[in-house]
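Exam revision sheet. Question 4 asks you to relate a sequence to its structure. Input first:
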Amino acid sequence: MKLLPVVLCGGSGTRLWPLSREQYPKQLLALTGDHTMLQDTVLRLNDQIGWDDAEILAPLVVSNEEYRFITAEQLRQVNVKPQALILEPCGRNTAPALTLAALYALSHGEDPLLVVMPADHIMNDVAAFREAVHLGVACAERGQLVTFAIKPSEAHTGYGYIRAGATLADGVSELAEFVEKPDRITAERYLASGNYFWNSGIFMLKASLWMQQIRRFRPDIAQACEAAMAGSEIDQDFVRANREVFAACPADSVDYAVMERLTADGTQGVSPAVVIPLVAQWSDVGAWSALWDIGRKDEAGNVLRGDVLAVDTEDSLVISQGRLVACVGLRDSVVVETPDAVLVAHRDRIQQVKEIVLKLRADKRPESDAHRKVHRPWGWYDSIDNGERFQVKRIVVKPGASLSLQMHHHRAEHWVVVTGTARVTCGEEVSILSENQSTYIPLGIMHRLENPGKVHLEIIEVQSGTYLGEDDIVRFQDTYGR
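Answer key, structure tokens:
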């Protein structure tokens, strides 16, 4: 049997602000190790496992169009070449995203088992996860929908629950019902019963079964996705769903659209959905407190990352991205430092971070959407200083990459090469600059910056003018189709 990992890479994760932001959400962050959550997800199932009864295919990744280049770059960094990177023009929740993936899989003449995984979860026991998936292969192959449910470690009120029914085989039970997030008393009753599990949002089923069920329960979503894929375009390594058609697709989750409508009342004695409990040190990292829960703690119960000094501080999460963060006398706190924002909160009040994000958006502050360091397909830039009529950026361009051929109406630019070699187009003139050399780009002149070398090009850019916004760019040519 062929298994096709489907990685759902949408969502903004605003409760992990200031690290997670609209333009750089939590699945693209390395929160617990060297790999980002997206990278860990695609590495969870791969062809190196070596199962005799199942072939694991290259993954399908469904991502928002805004994250296409950084998603592709992160996959490249861990040597994962996806079957396709399917782009949603706008977010419509997980049911349409899975439908796009199922349609793509079926369009190639096969009906693989889809292993559906959100890209923003942490799972420390990967071996346990693989064992659970292997156990579910036989169920999915005979036409059942498999949901992997997390054995609860506490009476958590922030998760939806799944009630398991009759035992069908060792480690496999009927899916009796989905239940909404409970209150504390109900959650404690669920925990005591032993029949309730946290809903992980991880599923396995045939691509044809998903299409059968989404057409049955939400034909409007199925029809919109079919039309969007029929009008899709292949752009470089991306599959772009038709923008206008997909924008009209209703938004719904896998749970609400299909899973909660299934019961254990199957035909011919076969349950349409089954539950396989999973004990894999799992977390959906829905808030900073979750990162403290699963983090490696010091003798005082602190989880510390980055340049941090903690004195008389207990049971706290402290993260530094750059500057020294010194804490004295803290208890049950969360401190997160980034170059342009610092969060300080009590761990019990950390869910209210979303209120900060809403206020930032209401005030139209850029810190709600983007970091100071902004990733681009050619590399990245960091706005290291700004003031009245000037801005200073550190720009890094990957080997062989180039910025668009562009011009600005309101600003001029000075470029100083720090490392590497730059090919600079300024009007009709093309020149090569080496380290410590500089050039001037006058206002209104067409220009381009390229890295013809084999090492990263780093420059310091000083902008001056009446308006320095990123929307003051007129592109004439662009390798990346922006």
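Marking note for examiners. The domain at 2-283 is CATH 3.90.550.10 (Spore Coat Polysaccharide Biosynthesis Protein SpsA; Chain A).
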